[in-house]
Design brief:
binds 4'-deoxy-4'-aminopyridoxal-5'-phosphate, Aspartate Aminotransferase, domain 2, Aspartate Aminotransferase, domain 1, 2 domains, single chain, 4-stranded mixed sheet
Length: about 425
Amino acid sequence: MISRNQQLFERSQKYIPGGVNSPVRAFKSVGGTPVFFRRGKGAHVWDADDKTYIDYVGSWGPLILGHAHPEVIEAVEAAAQNGLTFGAPTEAELEIAELLCKLVSSIEQVRLVSSGTEATMSAIRLARGYTSRNRIIKFEGCYHGHDDALLVKAGSGALTFGHPSSAGVPEETASSTMVLDYNDLAGVEQAFNQFGDKIAAVIVEPVAGNMNLVAPKPGFLAGIRELCTKHGSVLIFDEVMTGFRVGLECAQGLFGIKPDLTTLGKVIGGGMPMAAFGGRRNIMQCLAPVGAVYQAGTLSGNPVAVAAGLATLKQVQAPRFYENLAASTRQLTEGLAGAAKKHDIDFCAQAVGGMFGLYFRNNLPSSYAEVMGCDREAFNRFFHAMLREGIYFAPSAFEAGFVSAAHGETEISDTLAAAERIFSAWSLE
Ligand code: PMP
């Protein structure tokens, strides 16, 4: 019998390109039918056929408290009762702006937007306006949303489908974007030596989470910071994924480096469409209506989204929140790596705070090229075997995974038991 998931996917493809509203959801790289979700609670989701899964995607990062956290839902309901949107300032958006400035010391002023793409696109425009320069540096395999200037050798879905650079991006736009190798500080130095006075900004994921997970080598981020300062370029940390995911002071707190601008998203919206960009006051003052760099949004600072964000940020400030989250995530990655080792399978894993990477190779990758060398076939087999076991990992070998505060001992040990069964079966083949 054809499953409800399959029926829905067939119908969707008639009306929605590829049947999905964001490419990776289509399961194209892993094959098979995407799972249509009906409900989520805590660490679990239920699909259209009522099968339950332990969820390690968490809507790609926002759900750090798990699905339908009671206090987030309550805050959303209360805000909705007072009206969905005003297109005018509210006290709640001031509150979240104050909170972001308090928690992230490099942020002196912040502006709210509705998606990570808007945040990075606006940060780039602001950096160009502030410096009166055009060129930007990004790193291969980093994904910063689908703005034209940043959709060059990008990661995430772009990488999954083998089109890291999109059709439809004008040559002129792409040519202002210099793409360098992540973790190759010498490459950045060389670019600055050659074009230093033309570089408006360097944008970087301080932990790369869109080409699987690649941690920065010691000195990489500090070196970029130094070069940007020396050449008067704006350093943008894209913390849409890492912000409030790897620690309360984001990745910049973890590594002790202050960018000039930071982009945030995912966790700060608690599952609602909200993101932000902020940083040094003198740069932020270039934004309209104070300055000449235009940026706007009908639903920016939306009161319902802000309520979800505030409720989420309140929870993550609880004592030991990030220590506990990191411990669960480490338990998962160490357990998976242990099971693979026991059965002699080329696999390793690592965690940074509440995010993790799984790699079918025998040591941790530190570059885009090494990530590309992972065994994708093995990943796809593992993904589907785990899915059958009721464990939902990201449907692509190029995405980081996420653990939430709702993932407890039981969920982690059930996940490890499933992996043990799978690796054990593989070792007998
Ligand atoms: N930057 C990073 C680092 C991201 O991971 C993402 C989304 N995964 C974005 C930007 C774009 O955010 P959005 O999908 O909300 O536009």
